[in-house]
Structure formats: structure tokens, C-alpha cells
Design brief:
By secondary structure, the chain is of the alpha/beta class. The chain contains 15 helices and 23 strands. The protein is 39% helix and 21% strand. Strands 15-16-17-14-13-18-19 form a 7-stranded mixed sheet, sandwiched between helices. The chain has a 6-stranded mixed sheet with strand order 10-9-8-11-12-21, with helices on both faces. Strands 1-5-4 form a 3-stranded mixed sheet, with no helix packed on it. Helix 3 runs antiparallel to helix 6, helix 4 packs parallel to helix 5 and helix 9 packs across helix 10. The longest helix is centred in the first third of the chain and has 25 residues. Bound molecules: nicotinamide-adenine-dinucleotide.
Length: 490
């Protein structure tokens, strides 16, 4: 499936669908620009089949299977991914261009953890109940039974394809739903490989379906506009999220949106510079800056500004761009040429806006084989006002702009001066200040002296343009189920 000119196929009702060569697109290696394979695009009819297969799986009793049976399925899926660990690593690295070292430690490891964590979370879940005093002096027992939402459309982006997909599929299946997933057109392979694992783990036909394609006028729209879906969980850009919301609105279905970010780091001058620079660098350059949680704005207290700027520039220069299959490679390419064009557009905007370039700002030359890839230099700027577009719009590349501040209040104001609200990181050695500032951030997740440390039982999501709702732990159980309050007169 992942090598040569093999097909990446759709998976519907427990079976891979024969591809139609006239309805297909190329799967491109972002590191070289070479075609890896063809991907079968799902048309309206196939999306209909997938949604009907999911409905049928529900009608055949999947929601009524004992919780233990569903959580054991999740554990078998985790074991199945583990057994094919290197297949997932090479498929994910080929699709995204990310170094195999990261794919191993982050993407595939987290996919396994997602299935195991949600097996635990669902197995341990309780339910709310209240004894209610009624006006006539008697009592009633109120309790809520949580029932699966039904058929859930799962739409995910290309930056952490398997991690984000399994973050949704695991709780959805554990709660007794059936899913139709639409991976990004850029990264179709691991969702498809997962279909083999889920099938072999014994999931009933129709509980997990994969349809490939694009957004508008393609599988993404066909799926979200489908009258037989019961909810949509979407991770992607804020503008696409808004479009999906409009598509779903007429049928008033629940949505969960994990969207873009323009995340700030606030660095106080009491820090240990070396340690903080290492953490900051990770938050800017991980996955070539293509993590929704990546830092793109760095506010540094004036006394520490020069040391932090110099340290970060040095770190950027030490990153090793190159063949993602080599173990020493730290940094891969951007996902595509069109994404690189977008990032280069911001390079021009920064220059026009009078930014001072600390490092980067161009396209690296890495040797013949990689010249066709979407490579870009890790880039840092100073000298931009908070109102500049580079400071306000999500760039989604290995970039950040540094701005000095004097007081704590000023730092909080600068960090919160954004339409987004996904993540923030506060770097300080003052414990009280760390808590205080982290709590003032208008974001879904606020780290102190760390970044991207994740607890899967915690609520995850964003404020403002960064999303609607939360997933993770109980929040996932709330999204993937619909409660019925039963009230019994005692
Ligand atoms: P995107 O919005 O372009 O695409 C996301 C998915 O939506 C893809 O599968 C795409 O095919 C599909 N899609 C596009 N148009 C659609 C439509 N009209 N109807 C239905 N589906 C449609 O995003 P992207 O470029 O793939 O990913 C990068 C973005 O994702 C960034 O903005 C990033 O911040 C965000 N992101 C957010 C989180 C989070 O947890 N908040 C995590 C990862 C990525």
C-alpha cells in the first residue's frame, strides 16, 4: 500500500474498495517531490456507502456491546499497531517527510497510547446521579445514561495524521459509535493502514470506514453534508472549520473543532537561559513548526532578550535538515510546495515590515535528491509590531518572531492580543508568577517551563478562532455520547 505505485484505497464496510483509475490523485513525498503512489478518491456514491455501512453497524448492535468488549478491541488495536510499528513509521514519514526519529517517538507512539488511554478512560467512566428533593416532600432519583452519538464524521489534517486521527477514533469506538474518517489528501497512508489493523483486531464491519479525497466538492464536503451523520469532529485550519460549521448548521449536529493557533511564549528574565532556549527551540521547530501548538510569538523580558535571541538563533543553525530516513536528521521539509509558497509569502511580508532577520529566511540547498522537496530554512525575526500580519496570522512553519517586554502585565496583554487561543507557554523560575501568568492566558492549554507535555485525561481544545469544545478524558466521552436524563420518583 505504501510502496512504489501501489494504491492507497478506500475502506468501506470492512473491505478495501477497488480503485477507479479515473478518480484518483497522486501521493507526493514532501522531501523529494516524487510521486509515491496513487490514492483512490471517494465520490459521493462511495461516501454514501460508507455512511450507510456505519449506520448498519450501529443497527447490528455495536452500541449495545458490553463496554469490556469495546475496550478490549481498543487494546487489540493498540497491540496491532505495535506489531506493525515500523510499517506505520515508514508510511507516516513518507507522507509527511518528517524524520523517522520523530515518527517513532511521537506519532506512532501516541497512536498506541491513544487507544490504550481511552480503553482505560471508558472502562473507568461512571455516570452522574442526583437525589432530588421534590416540593411535596418526596424524592426522585435522577441519573444520566450516556448513549453513543451514532455515526461520527472524523476529518483530520496532515501535520500529525495518525496521532490526531486516533485521538478521535479511539474514544468514538470505545463509546459505541461508528466512524467515517476522511484523512488529509496529503497524508492518506496511515489511516488506511489502520483499517487493516482495526479489521484484523476484529472490529465489526462498518464501524471504521475511510474515504479519501479533498474538501470542497469532494469527500470532505460529501461527508460533512451527509444527512445520515450524527456529529462531526474536525481538526484543521480555522477557515475550513468555519466552512464545515456552515455545512453542518442546517441539520444542527454537534461539532468539535480543534483549529489553528498563533501561540505565544512569555519568557521572564529570571530563567536559566540555556534550559529555556532548548525548550523554546523545541516549541518553535518541532515538526518543522507544523504543530498547531507550536510557538510563533516569543515575548522576552528585556534583560534576557539578547541572550535568548542569540541562543535561539544558534539552536536554529544547529538543526539538521535532510533525508527523513536518516537517524541524525532533526528537521524535515514542509508538507508541500503550496504550503512553502504560503510560508515564503510571510517571509516577504516580514521583510517589507522592516523585520530584522536573526537567522534563516530562505530555501536551503540540500543536494540533488532533495531539491524537489518543500524545504525551508528555520527562521527567526525581531522588530515586528504586534499588529503586523506576521504576528497575527498562523504561518505554520519553523518560524517565530521575538518581541521584548518590560512588565508582567504588558507580557500578558501582548500574549492575549490575538484572535486565536490555543496554547501558551510561560518560562520563569518564579513559581507564583508561573501559575499566575499561565492562568491569565486566554487559551485552551497553558504550559509552565515546558511545551507539548500532554495528559490524555485533560481537556484539550482552544478558545477564539482556535476551536469549539474540548476533547480528551471525560470531555471526549461527553462529545462522543448523548446523555438521557432519567428521573424516577422514589
Ligand atoms: P485544512 O483545514 O486545510 O484541512 C483539514 C482537513 O479538512 C483535510 O482533511 C481537508 O481535506 C479537509 N477539508 C478541507 N476543506 C473541507 C471542506 N470544505 N469540507 C470538509 N472537509 C474539508 O487544514 P490542514 O492544512 O490540513 O492542517 C493545518 C491546520 O490544522 C493548521 O491550521 C493547524 O493549526 C490545524 N491543526 C489544529 C490542531 C488542533 O488540535 N487545534 C491540530 C493540528 C492541526
Amino acid at each position: 500500500m505504501t510502496a512504489g505505485t501501489d494504491w492507497v484505497r478506500n475502506f468501506v464496510d470492512g473491505r478495501f474498495v477497488d480503485p477507479n483509475p479515473d478518480k484518483a490523485f497522486d501521493r507526493i513525498d514532501p522531501a523529494t517531490g516524487q510521486v509515491l503512489s496513487r490514492v483512490a478518491e471517494a465520490d459521493q456514491e462511495l461516501v454514501d456507502c460508507a455512511v450507510v455501512a456505519a449506520r448498519t453497524a450501529l443497527a447490528r448492535g455495536w452500541p449495545d456491546t458490553p463496554v469490556r468488549q469495546r475496550t478490549e478491541l481498543l487494546r487489540r488495536i493498540a497491540d496491532g499497531i505495535e506489531a506493525r510499528f515500523e510499517d506505520f513509521v515508514s508510511a507516516e514519514s513518507a507522507d509527511t517527510g518528517k524524520p523517522v526519529v520523530s515518527t517513532r517517538t511521537l506519532d506512532v507512539a501516541r497512536a498506541i497510547a491513544n487507544f490504550r488511554a481511552f480503553a482505560d478512560i471508558v472502562a473507568a467512566a461512571g455516570q452522574e446521579s442526583f437525589l432530588t428533593d421534590l416540593p411535596d416532600g418526596t424524592r426522585a432519583l435522577n441519573y444520566a445514561v450516556r448513549k453513543p452519538l451514532g455515526v461520527v464524521a472524523v476529518i483530520v489534517p496532515w501535520n500529525l495524521p495518525l496521532l490526531l486521527l486516533t485521538w478521535k477514533v479511539a474514544p468514538a469506538l470505545a463509546c459505541g459509535n461508528a466512524v467515517v474518517v476522511k484523512p488529509s489528501e496529503e497524508t492518506p497512508a496511515t489511516a488506511t493502514l489502520l483499517a487493516e489493523v482495526i479489521r484484523d483486531a476484529g472490529a465489526p464491519n462498518g464501524t471504521y470506514n475511510v474515504v479519501h479525497g479533498f474538501g470542497s466538492d469532494s469527500a470532505g464536503h460529501f461527508l460533512t453534508a451527509h444527512p445520515l451523520i450524527d456529529g462531526v469532529t474536525f481538526t484543521g485550519s480555522s477557515s475550513t472549520g468555519a466552512r464545515v460549521m456552515a455545512t453542518v448548521a442546517p441539520r444542527v449536529r454537534p461539532v468539535s473543532f480543534e483549529l489553528g493557533g498563533k501561540n505565544a511564549a512569555v519568557v521572564f528574565d529570571d530563567i536559566d537561559v540555556e534550559e529555556t532556549v532548548a525548550g523554546l527551540a523545541r516549541s518553535v521547530f518541532t515538526n518543522t513548526g507544523q504543530v498547531c501548538l507550536c510557538t510563533e510569538r516569543i515575548y522576552v523580558q528585556r534583560n534576557a532578550f539578547d541572550a535568548v535571541a542569540a541562543g535561539l538563533a544558534e539552536h536554529a543553525a544547529s538543526l539538521r535538515l535532510g533525508d527523513p530516513r536518516r537517524p541524525e536528521t532533526t528537521t524535515g521539509p514542509l508538507i508541500s510546495q503550496s504550503h512553502r509558497d504560503k510560508v515564503l509569502g510571510y517571509f516577504r511580508l516580514a521583510e517589507e515590515g522592516g523585520a530584522k532577520l536573526l537567522t534563516g529566511g530562505g530555501i536551503p540547498r540540500l543536494g540533488e535528491e532533495l531539491d524537489g522537496g518543500a524545504w525551508i530554512e528555520p527562521t527567526l525575526w525581531t522588530g515586528l509590531a504586534n499588529t503586523h500580519r506576521v504576528m497575527r496570522e498562523e504561518i505554520f512553519g519553523p518560524v517565530a518572531a521575538l518581541v521584548p517586554f518590560d512588565t508582567e502585565d504588558e507580557a500578558v496583554e501582548l500574549a492575549n492580543d490575538t484572535d486565536y487561543g490555543l496554547a501558551a507557554a510561560v518560562w520563569t523560575n518564579d513559581l507564583r508568577r508561573g501559575h499566575r501568568v499561565a492562568q491569565k492566558m486566554r487559551v485552551g492549554i497553558s504550559w509552565v517551563n515546558t511545551w507539548f507535555a500532554r495528559e490524555l485525561r485533560s481537556p484539550f481544545g482552544g478558545a477564539g478562532l482556535s476551536g469549539i469544545g474540548r476533547e480528551g478524558g471525560e470531555s471526549s466521552l461527553h462529545f462522543y455520547t448523548e446523555p438521557t436524563n432519567v428521573c424516577v420518583q422514589l
